[in-house]
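Why should sequence recovery work at all? Because a backbone constrains its sequence more than one might expect. Tight turns favour small or flexible residues, buried strands favour hydrophobic ones, and helices have their own preferences. The token representation captures these environments compactly. In the example below, the structure is given first.
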């Protein structure tokens, strides 16, 4: 789950873990994300207690598509570690900067190279929740990239504050595999 340190990612990861799935959350710094207390608001955080409560969930450093933004120490080889054998890749990378597009491109490219049959799931807000045309365009570009290149994909849209609805849509896709 790239971008899985957020609220939706944590909920989906714990649900999948409780069903017996092994889940790997890709994050920019696994050390900071697993710290007992949040160290910085600049990086995702799930916390030590979350990981202790969810033993089938692990964290993995990755570059998010931008080599200048990586701060973890073990980001090489994430493709083989995280994508090989994955049934699904759930892209929850947030933000609407160029970083979102780069992360999506990296996920699609490396998934095609390592595991082209994995289900690619993207989650984005509905257009009404995106105030700027630029944000809408970036979301549409990522969805097009996934649809045009991935054998199995689901591009999901939800209202921005509908956490339960977002998780349910993701789980519906996973349950259909």
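From this structural description, the recovered sequence reads:
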């Amino acid at each position: 789950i790239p971008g899985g340190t957020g609220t939706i990612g944590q909920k989906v990861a714990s649900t999948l873990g409780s069903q017996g799935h092994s889940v790997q959350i890709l994050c920019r710094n696994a050390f900071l994300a697993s710290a007992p207390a949040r160290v910085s608001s600049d990086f995702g955080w799930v916390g030590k207690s979350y990981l202790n409560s969810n033993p089938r969930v692990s964290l993995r450093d990755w570059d998010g598509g931008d080599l200048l933004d990586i701060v973890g120490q073990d980001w090489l080889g994430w493709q083989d570690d995280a994508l090989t054998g994955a049934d699904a890749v759930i892209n929850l990378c947030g933000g609407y900067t160029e970083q979102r597009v780069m992360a999506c491109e990296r996920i699609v490219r490396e998934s095609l190279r390592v595991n082209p049959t994995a289900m690619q799931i993207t989650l984005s807000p509905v257009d009404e929740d995106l105030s700027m045309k630029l944000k809408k365009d970036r979301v549409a570009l990522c969805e097009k990239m996934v649809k045009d290149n991935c054998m199995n994909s689901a591009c999901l849209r939800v209202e921005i504050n509908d956490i339960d609805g977002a998780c349910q849509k993701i789980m519906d896709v996973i349950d259909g595999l």
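A few observations help interpret the result. The beta strands are 23-27, 57-61, 88-91, 119-125, 153-158.
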